[in-house]
């Protein structure tokens, strides 16, 4: 079996019977090349342009050495081009001082990774031209990791703040690369929650963004999607109910309270405001006319209990809005203290149908 090269760093793998009488020379060469791959360092002095690493089997090559260090002063951009056909890991250290020129690392086909002056990075190739950054980019002198504040710096920032002095303070970033304690009131303002002890929101979306938005519509009022939510303070009174007041919550006790009989003042022409009750009563002390009702509500129904006074024989005429069976107005009972019940049904503001039960006792 003939000797062959290893697949990655290309050292000689001895074939059976090869290198007779010089086996030590071949073996020592392979071990030397492995030493390069493990701990070798190649120093490249550059002023810019491409430095392309090479890897040749069986012989010392710069592309086999573990550490690739770049020195010199750049007058143009510089690139380190790693061997792409093998699976190798390198540490590339850029020590070139430069104010404007860039130093980058790549393979012949990969994108470039920038190393600032004084930075080092660990790079690996997969044998297919792909370049991987297998460790953080660090400052070769200080160990600082690029893009991160070191642990010591963070602890120093916290140490300079000291202990929290007030209840409810928050630890925040200032936007200037530092940390600070911020009062609860200031933090709430930053978060748009107001400055008082109670958070304030312009609107809240519950579960769905288009149909469950809660907002403040006015003082003490809340709305869902623009429609006011009825509150406990919106509970109707009896007068709200029979007065047809909109946007009120009706409870059963109020509904029955509203049925209480309301007294109508006796007069030659009896004024009757339908919004002041459902059931009414009036005592006649003379011949009277029941005027057309005011503040009518279409569909409203109820009764008027008409009582004769102690003298009796009082008559009751009706305004033009009242309608009766057969078109003939009802004639009341005339005995002293007689009671008649007139039931009304409001068909329209100018039509109130009257039916009656006379001389109840």
Structural description of this entry:
- The chain has about 350 residues and is of the alpha/beta class.
- The protein folds into 3 domains: about 5-140, Jelly Rolls (Sandwich); about 150-190, no CATH class; about 260-355.
- It has 5 helices and 27 strands.
- It has helices at about 25-40, 150-160, 185-190, 240, 250-255, and strands at about 5, 10-15, 40-45, 50, 65-70, 80, 90-95, 105, 115, 120-125, 130-135, 140, 170-175, 180, 205, 215-220, 220-225, 225-230, 260-265, 270, 280-285, 290, 300-310, 315-320, 320-325, 340-350, 350-355.
- Strand 8 (about 105) and strand 9 form a beta hairpin.
- The mean pLDDT is about 85.
In short:
This protein is α/β, with parallel strands linked by helices and 361 residues long. It has helices at 23-39, 151-161, 184-190, 238-242, 252-257, and strands spanning 4-5, 12-13, 41-45, 49-52, 67-71, 78-81, 89-94, 103-106, 113-114, 119-125, 131-133, 138-139, 170-173, 179-182, 203-205, 213-218, 221-224, 227-228, 262-263, 269-270, 279-284, 288-290, 301-308, 316-318, 322-323, 339-348, 351-357.
Summarize the SSE layout with pairings.
Elements: E1 4-5, E2 12-13, H1 23-39, E3 41-45, E4 49-52, E5 67-71, E6 78-81, E7 89-94, E8 103-106, E9 113-114, E10 119-125, E11 131-133, E12 138-139, H2 151-161, E13 170-173, E14 179-182, H3 184-190, E15 203-205, E16 213-218, E17 221-224, E18 227-228, H4 238-242, H5 252-257, E19 262-263, E20 269-270, E21 279-284, E22 288-290, E23 301-308, E24 316-318, E25 322-323, E26 339-348, E27 351-357
Parallel strand pairs: 3-5, 4-6, 5-7, 6-8, 19-21, 20-22, 21-23, 22-24, 25-27
Antiparallel strand pairs: 1-2, 7-10, 8-9, 10-11, 10-12, 13-14, 15-16, 16-17, 17-18, 23-26, 26-27
């Amino acid at each position: 079996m003939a000797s062959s090269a290893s697949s990655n760093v290309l050292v000689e793998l001895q074939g059976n019977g090869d290198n007779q009488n010089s086996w030590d020379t071949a073996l020592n060469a392979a071990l030397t090349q492995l030493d390069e791959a493990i701990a070798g360092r190649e120093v490249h002095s550059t002023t810019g342009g491409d430095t392309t690493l090479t890897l040749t089997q069986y012989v010392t090559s710069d592309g086999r050495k573990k550490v690739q260090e770049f020195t010199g002063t750049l007058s143009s951009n510089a690139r380190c081009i790693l061997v792409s056909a093998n699976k190798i890991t390198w540490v590339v250290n850029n020590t070139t001082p430069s104010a404007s020129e860039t130093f980058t690392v790549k393979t012949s086909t990969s994108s470039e990774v920038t190393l600032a002056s004084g930075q080092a990075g660990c790079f690996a190739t997969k044998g297919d031209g792909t370049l991987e950054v297998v460790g953080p980019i660090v400052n070769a002198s200080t160990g600082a990791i690029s893009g991160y504040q070191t642990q010591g710096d963070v602890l120093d920032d916290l140490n300079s703040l000291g202990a929290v002095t007030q209840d409810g303070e928050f630890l925040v970033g200032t936007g200037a690369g530092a940390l600070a304690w911020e009062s609860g009131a200031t933090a709430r303002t930053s978060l748009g929650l107001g400055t008082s002890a109670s958070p304030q929101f312009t609107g809240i979306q519950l579960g769905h963004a288009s149909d469950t938005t809660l907002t403040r519509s006015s003082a003490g009022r809340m709305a869902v999607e623009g429609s006011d939510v009825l509150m406990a303070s919106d509970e109707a009174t009896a007068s709200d109910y029979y007065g047809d007041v909109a946007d009120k919550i009706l409870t059963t006790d109020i509904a029955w309270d509203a049925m209480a009989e309301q007294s109508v003042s006796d007069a030659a022409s009896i004024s009757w405001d339908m919004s002041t009750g459902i059931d009414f009563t009036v005592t006649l002390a003379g011949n009277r006319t029941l005027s057309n009702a005011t503040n009518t509500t279409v569909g409203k129904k109820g009764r008027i209990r008409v009582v004769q006074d102690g003298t009796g024989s009082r008559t009751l005429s009706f305004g033009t809005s009242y309608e009766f069976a057969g078109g003939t107005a009802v004639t009341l009972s005339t005995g002293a203290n007689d009671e008649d019940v007139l039931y009304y049904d409001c068909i329209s503001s100018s039509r109130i149908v009257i039916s009656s039960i006379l001389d109840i006792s």
